[in-house]
From TrEMBL:
Organism: Actinophytocola oryzae
Domain Cupin type-2: 73-107
Record PANTHER family: PUTATIVE (AFU_ORTHOLOGUE AFUA_8G07350)-RELATED
UniProt protein name: Cupin domain-containing protein
UniProt xrefs under InterPro entries: Cupin_2, QDO-like, RmlC-like_jellyroll, RmlC_Cupin_sf
One Pfam family recorded for the sequence: Cupin_2
Top-level taxon of origin: Bacteria
Length: 157
């Protein structure tokens, strides 16, 4: 698996119920806080650790979700191997890998929403390294039912 890569385990072509992916998450990667209005997701940490949240924050402040808090006082958690996180439709969520080693996740999304196509397009866009891709990533995410709340980052700043 490449340093940042995805393997489709079950595609939307094979299942109307959901898609399943194995994701390699490099140190420093931050998917950014985002919302899916029509689909739910499950994350299962296979290896390493990720910082993750799945709640509606009191306030969506700034461009970094790591300090967000839920009305109940919940914050970002550090999820180790064996952790499962469920994200219902319409709930803001995000994950990042603070290190010190790459992490590996299983990601299930239902209904599938053709996320494998989204991931293929996103990886191609990021691999092109054409400078600022913010607008291109935003347009891509909108096509796949992804409302971007904070920026995607290849490394924490």
């Amino acid at each position: 698996m490449p340093p940042f890569g995805l393997r489709v385990k079950i595609s939307s072509e094979r299942s109307a119920a959901g898609s399943l992916f194995e994701a390699a998450i490099p140190v420093g990667f931050d998917v950014g806080a985002h919302v899916h209005r029509r689909s739910e997701e499950f994350f299962y940490v296979l290896r390493g650790e990720v910082e993750i949240f799945a709640f509606e924050p009191v306030a969506r402040t700034g461009d970094d979700w790591h300090a967000w808090r839920s009305p109940e006082g919940e914050g970002v958690v550090r999820a180790a191997a064996g952790t499962v996180v469920h994200v219902p439709p319409g709930i803001p969520h995000g994950f990042s890998n603070p290190g010190p080693e790459p992490a590996r996740l299983l990601l299930h999304t239902a209904p599938p929403a053709h996320h494998e196509d989204y991931f293929d397009e996103l990886l191609a866009l990021l691999a092109a390294r054409r400078g600022d891709t913010t607008d291109e990533v935003r347009a891509l995410r909108e096509r796949y039912d992804i409302e971007q709340l904070t920026p995607l980052r290849s490394a924490r700043t």
